[in-house]
Fold:
Amino acid sequence: MNRLTRKEEEAMKILWKARKGFVKELIELHPEPKPLYTTFSSVIRGLEEKGFIGHKAYGKNHEYFPLVKKEEYRKAFMKDIVNDYFGSSYKNVVSFMVNEKKLSANDLKKLIDLIEKGEKNG
Structure:
């Protein structure tokens, strides 16, 4: 799965939340500053070419909807991040988060509980 640009990710986040919409409606949901119609429409068409979204035609208007689920993209994105920046090691990710003070000891205990529950159920 291809990584999306920042603008493409913004558009996908809006579409995932809305579930479907016409370009004009999706722009209304976009945070400020709102993009130009033509700019946003180009991003949407690019996402469709990449296979991330589809559309239903109503005359000349198109109602767009996601073809790729948010969870599906998140998994692929995280896998790429872990491979590219952490030597394919989730342990290195956790270590980075601890060193950056993004995870507390309590957070780590909760993660250990999740892992242990997963091992018992798996």
In short: The radius of gyration is 19 Å. The mean pLDDT is 93. The CA atoms of residues 14 and 29 lie 7 Å apart. Strands lie at 21-22, 53-58, 61-66.
